Amino acid sequence: xxxxxxxxVLLAACAEHNTQYPGPPELTLGFGESELVLIHDGDPVPxxxxxxxxxxxWGAASVRYLDPDQxxxxxxxxxxxxxxSLSRVLVDLHDADDGFAASTTSxxxxxxxxxxxxxNQRCVWRLExxxxxxxxxxxxxxxxxxxxxx
Length: 150
Hints:
- With 150 residues, the chain is mainly β.
- The chain is 11% helix and 46% strand.
- The longest helix is centred in the N-terminal third of the chain and has 13 residues.
- The chain is elongated.
């Protein structure tokens, strides 16, 4: 009997999570170390200091109609010349009402290996969000990373 109970628990943990949402995924890209700051194309975005030093732009977003558990976020910043820098994270959005409510996440550092390549340059700031069921959304803005607050 214990084997059957254990098997039921194991199978329940492996069940596919496939929630039907009333619309396509919604994704809003911004920046922020501790909260989401909304941006528009051409806005300045501050260059900060990362948790272990180095220069970063802090990624932040608002997400709706994607599975909030094990959500994969890929933040990319591409300068006009040179290689892009990216950061990929898995997050659990606990206040998302199973993906039906908009939920925010912030504090995701995207390291800038060569600050001069990005600073005061028009860069493409991109976010791709993908949930464990394969649904995805992309948001993109043109930003100008700057030292100090915008």
